[in-house]
Amino acid sequence: MSEEEDSAQSEADSSYLEVSLAGRRTFVVGDIHGCLAELVVLLDELDGKSELRPGDLLIFIGDYIDRGPDSKGVVEHLMERASKAEYEVVFLRGNHEEMLLSFLGSGGTGGEVYLINGGNQT
């Protein structure tokens, strides 16, 4: 593979994130769907019982938005909490974030699919 092809392949693969799990405790949270109160309880429980420690990994696997009452609050809370965390935090994009981005990037077409899947709450 030429250097130019290698560079192009590297750019194409940039949507993949390599995370080393060796020797690390890993916690995974998904499908929050705008439920801020429940998210706060969960994270307070993990932080309060010293479950999460420096060197640990907390992965959020997407679907932060839609359906629940406070998608904006969920996103703001996650960003704030991650900025202060003493452990590594990784955010992945879920299908609801993909639907929103697709809807926004398509000039507003395809909104029915997004709204049917809970987008009207967002």
How would you sum up this structure in a few lines?
The chain has helices at residues 3-12, 36-48, 71-84, 95-105, 111-116, and strands at 26-29, 57-60, 88-91.
Terminal CA distance: 45 Å
Uncertain stretches of 5 or more adjacent residues: none
Alpha carbon gyration radius: 17 Å
Strand content: 5-15%
Largest sheet geometry: 3 strands, parallel
What is the tally of helical segments? Answer: 5
The arrangement of helices and strands along the chain is HEHEHEHH
Strand order of the biggest β-sheet? 1-2-3
How many strands in all? 3
Helix fraction bin: 40-55%
Features:
122 residues; mainly alpha; 5 helices; 44% helix; 10% strand
Descriptive account of the structure:
By secondary structure, the chain is mostly helical. It has a domain at 22-94. The chain has 5 helices and 3 strands; from the N terminus they run αβαβαβαα. The chain has helices spanning 3-12, 36-48, 71-84, 95-105, 111-116; strands at residues 26-29, 57-60, 88-91. The chain has a 3-stranded parallel sheet, with no helix packed on it. The model has no long low-confidence stretch (mean pLDDT 86).
